[in-house]
Design a protein that fits this description.
Layout (H helix, E strand, L loop, with lengths): L1 H20 L6 H11 L5 H16 L9 H12 L6 H5 L11 H11 L21 H8 L5 E5 L4 H10 L4 E3 L4 E4 L15 E3 L2 H5 L13 E4 L6 H9 L4 E6 L2 H14 L5 E4 L8 H7 L5 E7 L14 H4 L4 H16 L3 E11 L8 H9 L3 E9 L9 E8 L2
Parallel strand pairs: 5-6, 5-8, 6-7, 8-9
Antiparallel strand pairs: 1-3, 1-4, 2-3, 9-11, 10-11
Length: 400
């Protein structure tokens, strides 16, 4: 036991060091990978245990800020785990009997020990939410480890299912091509990533319901804020005969995207860098796209990411609500810049991974007021009860 105690004391110290130096200026998952690269002495078990403490700390937001970092790590670990890895047995053995209880009971238990703990401050933001979101359910979802989803690509279902069964990997079949992988499982042996399947959140997959029906084979599609290309691949899978144009503002992410499209066996009509907010980029855009414009433009725009904070909990501590108005302006500017490149009768699909109305319905309202677009549909895709993200999507068409 003394040896085990030494391990967990070491994990606590490492986690405290990582937390104290983190400033929220990059995804925490990136930050902690850098730390482990700089400290190669940590083995795989060490990395998992240290990361668990850090993510538990981040997941409880500012709900226990009056307590020490060590106390907050304890609270976070307890609330985000159903089973102990030896940490509570070492530090708080009397908590073990409560570990498997319902999250509401666990929250009440923590309040009985730490009276200043305030669950409502796990998500402390007051901005109006999109759609219908149950506040308690949403907060509870932030304390649960997010699920891992894959999307099976067309004509690859048999191969992927055979690979999963052969590897004895448990999965839930959400739909014909959406699977939830059960447990922390390495699926590298199942098939070829991006060719056979894509790692893609369930709610992200559901945004395809906003894609229009386009009967023509030779159509032009532009994924205008493509990031690493997950939705570019999904667009191709839905419209395999389309000419696909892809852009992003970041050169580094475009290199990742090019590699993913290559792995997926997709040849884009053009991949180019463009800052959609900058009017000086208009000449770059015009020389990079077809003169006749697009039948469909997808704009998965920069946003708060609040719908993904179950996976990226650093936002719970570092996001500043005042940024929402800046983001709203950016989102609206991007959409207004895209409208002239639509064909008459073409479609614009707007997506955020935000649950804030100012980034969602308010953007829709303001865009309709200043463009010739008509709203086809809008919805919040909630992943609260599925271990998935929450995303907003709206579809517009340009009046002929």
């Amino acid at each position: 036991m003394a040896g085990m105690n030494a391990y967990f004391i070491s994990y606590q110290k490492s986690a405290s060091s990582i937390i104290s130096s983190f400033r929220g200026d990059e995804p925490f998952s990136v930050n902690i990978k850098k730390y482990f690269k700089q400290h190669p002495k940590h083995g795989s078990r060490d990395r998992k245990n240290i990361a668990d403490l850090c993510f538990g700390f981040l997941r409880i937001g500012k709900s226990a800020d009056s307590y020490t970092t060590e106390d907050q790590m304890l609270i976070g670990f307890f609330l985000t785990h159903q089973q102990d890895n030896g940490y509570l047995e070492f530090s708080k053995p009397d908590w073990l009997l409560k570990m498997g209880e319902d999250i509401s009971e666990k929250l009440n238990f923590i309040i009985s020990i730490f009276p200043a703990f305030n669950p409502s401050l796990i998500f402390p933001f007051t901005a109006e939410k999109s759609g219908i979101i149950n506040e308690d359910e949403f907060i509870h979802s932030l304390l649960a480890k997010p699920a891992f989803f894959i999307r099976i690509r067309p004509n690859r279902r048999k191969n992927v299912l055979e690979g999963l069964n052969k590897a004895e990997i448990t999965y839930d079949e959400i739909s014909e091509d959406c699977l939830r992988i059960v447990g922390s499982t390495n699926i590298d042996s199942v098939g070829i990533l991006n060719r056979d399947y894509v790692v893609q959140d369930m709610s992200s997959q559901k945004t395809a319901s906003s894609f229009p029906f386009l009967s023509k084979e030779k159509i032009q599609i532009w994924d205008a804020c493509a990031a690493s290309g997950g939705k570019s691949i999904m667009l191709y899978d839905h419209f395999p005969h389309a000419q696909l144009y892809v852009s992003d503002v970041r050169t580094s992410i475009l290199e990742i995207l090019k590699e993913r499209l290559k792995q997926a066996g997709i040849r884009a009509a053009n991949i180019f860098q463009a800052d959609l907010e900058d009017a000086y980029n208009d000449h770059i855009i015009k020389k990079s796209i077809p003169k006749q414009g697009f039948d469909l433009i997808l704009a998965d725009v920069p946003c708060s990411g609040s719908g993904t904070w179950g996976r990226n909990p650093e936002g719970l501590r570092f996001f500043n609500e005042r940024e929402l108005l800046v983001l709203h302006k950016k989102q609206l500017n991007i959409l207004k810049r895209l409208v002239p490149y639509l064909k008459p009768g073409g479609y614009l699909v707007y997506i955020t991974c935000s649950i804030f109305k100012v980034e969602n319905e308010k953007v829709v309202e303001d865009l309709l007021a200043c463009s010739g677009l008509e709203l086809v549909s809008q919805q919040l895709i909630s992943g609260v009860n599925e271990g998935a993200d929450s995303l907003f999507t709206a579809s517009f068409t340009l009046k002929p």
